[in-house]
């Protein structure tokens, strides 16, 4: 078993002492990097990039060659699970992900095939083990999945949506059908994340990208309850080390109190929740991650440094010494100058040391 050279990311998630604040970026392997665009062009299309072991490993490692990051995240897509359930994922230029089939009825849910992550998504597990080996213990590897609610929105709508018309219609008119779908997805995600952990993922994150579109009671019933079920079903230790679990609901900072009850180790925050308030709310019961506005990286080096320092001041305003991972409040965008993330990352490491 390869010794982990830099484990501050895992330590911070478990609220253990760290020498400096760990930092990584959601979507850190992506279109803002010219080397990523070059590799994607070689692959031919996005799905081919995900399904090719060598390409998936290469793009995962690319940001680590440029920046002093404290974690790598598996290069994949949250929609691999619905694709494996037979919905037929494809991507249209300028329109994002789409499915050939949708789930709109009780019969549609009942007709979903059985799911086995290790066989149905073997290319993901192969990528995890390949990346873990290639990292050589440099930093931990994060595995991930979409949340049941977020996956369900794509499956019901047939792709991306601004108003979630069909999903919310199902939620209010036929809640039993949506619950049946969410339950199937929760079971699938448990299997999927446990398979990633078996393959070598050292932490996992659940991306609840669209949880913030729900009303407060509906968020608890249709999103958080299913994430809690997933957390309860996950392997929390591997090779003698704890495997931390991060929940990230974009637009969900107001639900931190019920989130803590899920038993997850950490919660991601977007840029709308004051970090000092969030720290006060969780009160040492969990770690937090985030919450720099990704658009900050369009700024000058001076403005990026100023915003990053302000975020860190908020993170440590109550005297905590750990339990915080610096990150963006959502994924880095394709229009960011690749020089700018270095300012963010280096500022985190240099400035936060004074608090620790």
Automatic annotation (TrEMBL):
Alphabetical UniProt keywords: Cytoplasm, Decarboxylase, Lyase, Porphyrin biosynthesis
GO molecular function: uroporphyrinogen decarboxylase activity
EC number, UniProt record: 4.1.1.37
Cellular localisation: Cytoplasm
InterPro entries from the UniProt entry: UROD/MetE-like_sf, Uroporphyrinogen_deCO2ase_HemE, Uroporphyrinogen_deCOase
Reactions listed under catalytic activity: uroporphyrinogen III + 4 H(+) = coproporphyrinogen III + 4 CO2
Keyword Transferase on entry: no
Keyword Lyase: yes
Enzyme class: lyase
Chain positions recorded as substrate binding sites: 27-31, 77, 154, 209, 330
Entry-linked HAMAP family: URO_D
Subunit annotation: Homodimer.
Name by which UniProt lists this protein: Uroporphyrinogen decarboxylase
Protein species of origin: Acinetobacter kookii
Name of the encoding gene: hemE
